Amino acid sequence: MLVNIAPSILNADFSNLELVLKQLETGGAKYLHLDIMDGHFVPNLTFGPPVVKSLRAKTNLIFDVHLMVEKPESLIEPFIEAGADMITIHWESTRHPHRLLQKIKDSGKKAGIALNPATLPENLEYLLDLIDLILIMSVNPGFGGQSFINNQLTKIRKVKSMVCKAPQEILLGVDGGINLQTAPLVIEAGANFLVTGSFLFKGDVIKNLKDLIEVCQKS
Ligand SMILES: O=C(CO)[C@H](O)[C@H](O)COP(=O)(O)O
Question: Is 38 among the residues known to form the active site?
């Protein structure tokens, strides 16, 4: 099974993101996971469309924008204009997930939906035809460096059986606490899209990414 790795820059050195992009490219990344936090949906703040636009000018990595915001409807267009290739909304952040996924798809971009640790996967049943990525949050969203919540392995297995029945390809993502120990566990449960942040940015980024890719290939 091909396993994709989407490095999150949440724990990167923000004073030198151009270098970070180069390190990730050298390490073999294809995706860049961009955590957008508004201080309301989650208790942390990150960055907005202008930063994404600046990064877009420096790399061809696939931009995977993860909206951890209230009122995501107001930010879909700005992030598409800034260069997002994929936009993931949170199921818990809107009364109208179907409408927002449809809006992302109508813009020609890949649409993702994220589930907080306590959210049931059954909520996705009537959205599946609009989804390119399901992102299981294996930590409570808002901060890097948290420990993987083990009971999310059960949810990954449930979602795996749902995506197998879908006519289109749906990536099964996991976000939070992914490292050399947890990656094999989530892959065994069915995940094929791993978001990872603090593991990569402790020490040698290029080596850490290469090590993770190798572990994923062997799993
Ligand atoms: O969405 C996120 C936090 O809300 C991050 O993408 C996630 O936590 C990755 O960081 P780490 O690998 O350090 O857990």
Answer: no
Q: Would you kindly state where each structural domain of the chain is located, as residue ranges?
A: 4-218
Distance 125 CA to ligand 1 centre (A): 26
Catalytic residue (one of 35, 38, 64, 132): 35
User: Is the Cβ atom of 35 under 6 angstroms away from ligand 1?
Assistant: yes
Burial, 162: exposed, middle or buried (Cβ in 10 Å; 0-12, 13-18, 19+)? middle
The pair of structure tokens assigned to 67 is: 């909206």
- Classify domain 4-218 at the CATH class level: alpha beta
31 lines ligand 1 (CB under 6 A): no
Evaluate whether 31 touches 5 at the Cβ level (below 8 Å): yes
**pLDDT tens-digit readout, 141-192:** 999 999 999 999 999 999 999 999 999 999 999 999 999 999 999 999 999 9
- How much is the pLDDT for 8? 98
